[in-house]
Design goal:
The complex is a heterodimer.
Chain A lengths: L4 E4 L3 H7 L5 E4 L5 H6 L7 E4 L8 E4 L2 E5 L4 H6 L1 H6 L1 H8 L4 H6 L2 H5 L51 H7 L3 E5 L5 E5 H4 L18 E7 L6 E7 L10 E10 L2 E10 L9 H7 L6 H12 L11 H16 L5
Parallel strand pairs in A: 1-3, 2-3
Antiparallel strand pairs in A: 4-5, 5-8, 6-7, 6-8, 9-10, 10-11
Chain B lengths: L1 E6 L2 E6 L6 H9 L17 E4 L2 E4 L12 E3 L1 H4 L7 H8 L9 H16 L18 H7 L10 H20 L1
Parallel strand pairs in B: 1-5
Antiparallel strand pairs in B: 1-2, 3-4, 3-5
Helix pairs in contact in B: 3-6, 4-6
Classes of the chains: A alpha+beta, B alpha+beta.
Bound molecules: flavin-adenine dinucleotide, iron/sulfur cluster and FE2/S2 (inorganic) cluster (2 copies).
The site of flavin-adenine dinucleotide has 30 residues of chain A, from strand 2, helix 2, helix 6, helix 7 and strand 8.
Chain lengths: 327, 173
């Protein structure tokens, strides 16, 4: 690993100001950043440790929860309020990584973890995400883990987070502090970007921006489900995952919030799919129509074509369970 | 950079570059070679140590971030003549073959049992809010961050199950 200067921020203000210096990176749990630094994929000149800022608490806010940026994934999954009112989030966190990694990984770091595309990890291969304009080795290569929705000619990578998928279905909001102290709020669904022709720009963050928290709105009595399909039973990234947050009223689907992992460059939500479910009584026929909408523009690369029928099945199973029927 | 921390109960002051991981510091600066380097990328768990009561991967942890921390390695859990319950159980159940993954397995299991005693659920727990019961399925899931190339998993689970049973009975009291 290339050496770097290590700094410890003592306030958010100091962190955002210092982060404006070129080649500076925030350090959360380090489980993604240090991995990438060892491989020479990330080469920061300065690491700014944010772990000692006052961002490690979960507090109640307007009936919901405000989750500090440095709250560990394991503590978030085990928090009694999260287990009771946001089980989809506990489940998604517990489906990710390992006990050790969850003890280190932070809320902000998890949102900002980078793709697991094997060509992104191999510095001998061309990758537009690592080197804009270099080309994409995945297209025409090994694509089992790649996107079927929202991809571009420049990049077909997926976002690997489980936590972010649950947060997207829960309509979470990311709280961001800019240099100078101004705070803004961005819906999780708008936080990550599709690759387009700039796959190296992954989120809406601007230079110096620090994530300070993620805010969950008050729960409204929904049924919450997280399902994840992977190549081994544990300690593996999702091939496809789904978070379903569904509220029933008098035998009909009142609201349905669905987010998918493993399909795209960001946690995937589709307002049309949710609209087609709402107001309807649940049936396999309806779930099939929802899957048709979700997958109408799906596009496989060959090796990942299996994700199309798999997504249809995982959607149906999650909706059966969330609407009260058998999975 | 200078880092001051406690390792296995002993105060230490280590001078090292910022890029030195806790794993390399333990092995090369302190000479505690019980903690192993398998992958150096968070994928195998051989480097697991316990910091402030929590199991972590020391290969993805920078020494300089651990100012003031209390680190426990496999050497700190016990030694010949006064082995910890898990160390004894791994011997009794033949929980290893080559032994390379064993220090990480034992550190991980030591902290995992405490997580369960606090009531932390896992991905395979039926209920998120019920009591944590360490069935074989639960132990395998909670220990999935520790790989064993010799595939001693059945005996590793046996060893952990024995100790977990006693600990959970204690927690229930
Ligand atoms: C073997 C392995 C298996 C894994 N399996 C899974 C899995 O199945 N599912 C899953 O979801 N994840 C998985 N992960 C990924 C893991 O969840 C992430 O590495 C972790 O969540 C990253 O969090 P961190 O705090 O360690 O981030 P860091 O590595 O510290 O940081 C990541 C990025 O976030 C930036 N950052 C950190 N904090 C802030 C902040 N407050 N504001 C702005 N920027 C910030 C950093 O600069 C860096 O760019 C796995 C990881 C490994 C190594
Ligand atoms: S899919 Fe994206 S991350 Fe993977 S090689 Fe192509 S450009 Fe790089
Ligand atoms: S050496 Fe740390 S996880 Fe493999
Ligand atoms: S005993 Fe050989 S790797 Fe586990």
């Amino acid at each position: 690993m290339k050496d770097f200067a290590y700094l410890r921020a003592s306030s958010c203000d100091e962190a955002t100001t210092e982060a404006l210096e070129p080649a500076t990176r925030f350090l959360g749990g380090g489980t993604n950043l240090l991995d990438l630094m060892k491989l020479g994929i990330e080469t920061p000149a300065r690491l700014l440790d944010v772990n000692r800022l006052d961002l490690g608490v979960i507090e109640e806010l307007d009936g919901g929860l405000r989750i500090g940026a440095t709250v560990r994934n394991s503590d978030l999954a085990a928090d009694p309020r999260v287990r009771r009112s946001y089980p989809v989030l506990s489940r998604a966190l517990l489906a990710g990584a390992s006990g050790q990694l969850r003890n280190m990984a932070t809320t902000a770091g998890n949102l900002l973890q980078r793709t697991r595309c094997p060509y992104f990890y191999d510095t001998d291969m061309a990758c537009n995400k690592r080197t804009p304009g270099a080309g994409c080795s995945a297209i025409g290569g090994f694509t089992r883990y790649h996107a079927i929705l929202g991809a571009s000619d420049a990049c077909i990578a997926t976002h690997p987070s489980d936590m972010a998928v649950a947060m997207a279905a829960l309509e979470a909001v990311v709280e961001i502090e800019a240099p100078g102290g101004a705070r803004r709020h961005v819906h999780l669904a708008d936080f990550h970007r599709l690759p387009g022709d700039t796959p190296h720009i992954e989120t809406c963050l601007e230079p110096g921006d620090l994530i300070t928290a993620v805010i969950l709105p008050a729960p409204a009595g929904e049924r919450q489900i997280y399902r994840k399909i992977r190549d081994r039973a544990s300690y593996a990234f999702a091939l496809v995952s789904v978070a379903a947050v569904v509220r029933m009223e008098e035998g009909r689907i009142a609201t349905a919030r669905l987010a998918f992992g493993g399909l795209a460059h960001k946690p995937w939500r589709d307002a049309e799919v949710e609209a087609c479910l709402e107001g309807e009584p649940p049936s396999d026929d309806l779930f099939d129509r929802a899957a048709d909408r979700l997958l109408q523009r799906a596009w496989g690369q060959g090796e990942n074509d299996f994700k199309i029928p798999l997504t249809r099945r995982i959607l149906t199973a999650a909706l059966r369970e969330a609407t009260g029927g058998m999975a | 950079m200078k880092t001051t921390l406690t390792i296995n109960g002993e105060p230490r002051e280590i001078e090292a570059e910022a890029r030195v991981t806790l794993l390399d510091a333990l092995r090369h600066e302190i000479g505690l070679t019980g903690t192993k380097k398998g992958c150096d990328h968070g994928q195998c768990g051989a480097c697991t140590v316990i910091v402030d009561g929590r199991r972590i991967n020391s290969c993805l942890t920078l020494l300089c971030t651990q100012e003031g921390a209390e680190v426990v390695t496999v050497e700190g859990l016990g030694e010949p003549g006064r082995l910890s319950a898990l160390q004894e159980a791994f011997l009794a159940q033949d929980g290893f073959q080559c032994g390379y993954c064993t220090p990480g397995q034992i550190c991980s299991a030591t902290a995992m049992i405490e997580e369960a005693a606090k009531g932390w659920p896992s991905w395979v727990s039926e209920s998120l809010e019920g009591e944590a019961v360490l069935s074989r399925e639960e132990i395998s899931e909670r220990m999935s961050g520790n790989l064993c190339r010799c595939a001693c998993y059945p005996n590793i689970v046996d060893a952990i199950a024995k100790v977990a049973e006693a600990r959970m009975a204690e927690a229930a009291e």
